[in-house]
Amino acid sequence: MSTLRFILVTASLTVVVGACDYWFVDDDRVCTLMGCSSGFSLHLSPSSIRFQPGRFDVSVEVENDTTRSCFFVVSNDPERCASGQCVVEENCNALYFVGYSDPDRVMIAYPVLPGMLTIQVQHDGSDIGELSVEPEYRMSQPNGPGCPPICRRASASLFLDQG
């Protein structure tokens, strides 16, 4: 009987120790090991349902100092857009919901925590949107209260006037 009890206890400990890859105990808290990232997200949407074809230049000035610029090009081929390939060139490393989503939208993530931002967007060289914003960051602890990491995220939306 004691051999059977030893086997059951050993098997139970193996299951518990094997599960430790997914959580840990820190100062009497049980924490998971989920990650998160801090930063700022910019959401761009056209004033109409769709982005017009052409080049969009996005410039983000961080606290009157550093400027980050990128661009994306929207195709004028309806078949290409219907297949989800409407953005034909880009360097924004963004998520594009263009041509198949109602309404179109672009989400650009910046791994910085600025206190003040000035955002300017041009379409084929013409100014179509500008926004100055002081982001309000929300703190999150995906692994539970008192467990690392602590992440801060904020976002802003800009509706673009394409005429």
Protein architecture, described:
This protein is mainly beta. It folds into two domains: 2-32; 39-160, Sandwich (Immunoglobulin-like), CATH 2.60.40. It is built from two helices and twelve strands, in the order H-E-E-E-E-E-H-E-E-E-E-E-E-E. The chain has a five-stranded mixed sheet, with no helix packed on it. The longest helix is centred in the N-terminal third of the chain and has 17 residues, at 2-18. Residues 1-21 have low confidence and may be disordered.
Write the layout of secondary structure elements.
Layout: H1 2-18, E1 23-26, E2 29-32, E3 39-46, E4 54-62, E5 66-74, H2 78-82, E6 87-90, E7 95-97, E8 105-110, E9 117-123, E10 126-133, E11 138-140, E12 151-160
CATH level 3 topology of the largest domain = Immunoglobulin-like
Q: Helices and strands: which structural class?
A: mainly beta
Report low-confidence residues grouped into runs of 5 or more.
1-21
Strand content is over 45%
Rounded to the nearest angstrom, the distance between the terminal CA atoms is 84 Å
Shape assignment: globular
Instruction: Supply the number of helical segments.
Output: 2
Domain count: the total is 2
CATH superfamily of the largest domain: Immunoglobulins
**Main sheet properties:** 5 strands, mixed
Which architecture of the largest domain would the CATH scheme give at its second level? Sandwich
Helix proportion of residues, in percent?
10-25%
Strand order of the largest sheet: 7-8-3-12-11
CATH class of the largest domain: Mainly Beta
